[in-house]
Amino acid sequence: MMALMDDQLRYNRQPAYIRFKNDTHYDVEVVWINFHKKEKPYCILPPGQFLDVNTYATHPWIFRECISKSRMVANGQEVFMAIPWVEEHRRLAFDHPISIPLRTMVIIKMPGAMELRLLCLLKLVNIIKAKEDIRTLELPVILTKELIQMIVNKEEYKSRLTN
Question: Taking the model in full, what pTM does it have?
Answer without folding.
Answer: 0.74
